[in-house]
Amino acid sequence: MIQQIRESVEYLKSKGVDRPEIGVIQGTGLGSVFIQHIKHSIIINYNDIPHFPDSTLGFHKGKLIYGEVGGKKVLTMQGRFHYYEGYSMQKITMPIRVMKALGIKYLLISNAAGNMNLSWKKGELMLIDDHINLQPDSPLRGINHDELGPRFPDMSQPYSQLLNEKLKVIAAEKSIKLNVGVYACVTGPNLETRAEYRYIRRIGADVVGMSTVPEVVVANHAGLPCCAISVLTDDCDPDNLQPANIAEIIEVASKAENKLTELYVELIHSI
Fold this sequence. Notes:
Blueprint: H1 2-14, E1 22-26, E2 39-45, E3 63-69, E4 72-78, H2 89-92, H3 94-102, E5 106-115, E6 125-133, H4 161-173, E7 178-185, H5 194-202, E8 207-209, H6 213-221, E9 226-235, H7 246-270
Parallel strand pairs: 1-4, 1-5, 5-9, 6-7, 7-8
Antiparallel strand pairs: 2-3, 3-4, 5-8, 6-9
Helix pairs in contact: 1-3, 4-7
């Protein structure tokens, strides 16, 4: 793993990626608005980067974009990888290792999630305060490389309190509704049954998705402060459950992206 990270880093440096300060991961249906704020951009396809996996999903662009936002050097993943695509946990979190090795100090994450909190509505945003990991594997399983992080990383505060408080202030100033809650991460790619939604809600989650947690685990292992915002793309009321429509989910995410981008652009300015 260490050698693969080094080779990826050297390749990206050769393409002009120079000491990025902030990493950004864009989720399903997200990314097109944020990249419009990136100046002097360098665009690199995932499949050109040594040891990077390639996105198997048509709605994930599969591009790494380097440039400036608010005077800060930013490295953005336009599309991420998921466990359900068949990759190992170590492989889907490889980009976080590479971004950390390149020099990023903060990691900003977004995702599309199903909403189980009936007091909220689809199209709104939720700041992740904590998560419940229901996936069957960990990106830290196996031999630990001490230069990457400790064998037993603490997860008592997986999402940066500093970044979360800044986002709450920014949302209030811009009159953007930002719910705060718990994200449950499942394997996918199938969506949940009515009984599964009831179970996940009862154990304490507000929303459910298929990403983010492996990346957050690796960020914490690497000592990298991170935050994450979910776009609530569909209502998951088990007593009134409608068949999932992926095209509609992507459309809802796209419509909410302006608010998400506004929050993250302002956060980048402030850190």
